[in-house]
Amino acid sequence: MIIGISKLNGKLEGFRAIGTNTRTNKFCVKMNSAKKETICKFCYSHATLERGIYKDLEPFLQSNSEVLGNTILKEYVFRQGSTVTQKLNDAYFRFQQHGELINMTHFINLMNIALDNPKTTFACWTKRKDILNKYKKENEIPKNVIMVYSNPDINKILDAPPEGFDKVFNNVWKNHAVEKQNCTGQKCMDCLRCYDKEKENVIVEAVK
Length: 208
Description:
26% of the residues lie in helices and 22% in strands. It is an alpha/beta fold and 208 residues long. The strands form two sheets. It has a seven-stranded mixed sheet with strand order 2-3-6-7-8-9-10.
């Protein structure tokens, strides 16, 4: 099976990632359309895909959704463009720059990727406490995975990660808790707060 890899740009320049389709993820659709104002209402991924800004992006992400969400993989390769590899050589890697965990199968596949690539540090963003907690009843999170809780509530800063998570990523309005904002536009590769367990475990960013 082929897992598509994305080369990131902007503040995420220097990283690669595995993402999935936000628009076919039931959790994402529910959160994006909910009446309650959460960060999901401002989802860049959902808006980008809905507008069709990048023609080939959604089919690419949908392929990953189907590959990762339907079957626990025994064999797989990674593809970025025309390059196909069996292993990752990245120092740091991101899970879910697009989309959210689909189900337990998806999460198991991501954790197995981490186990298969022990020299790479993986950061996994999710709001799905239910999936993480269920996984942890029978499994340990690989040591090279940093679990980042993506706090859905705007202006409700969690001062510590929920149980089972290494870090928490909060969003606030630009003029709220300015003194606590520590994700302020710098390149992630120069910061690495989210990718180093020894660094701060509470991250705060202004909604864009």
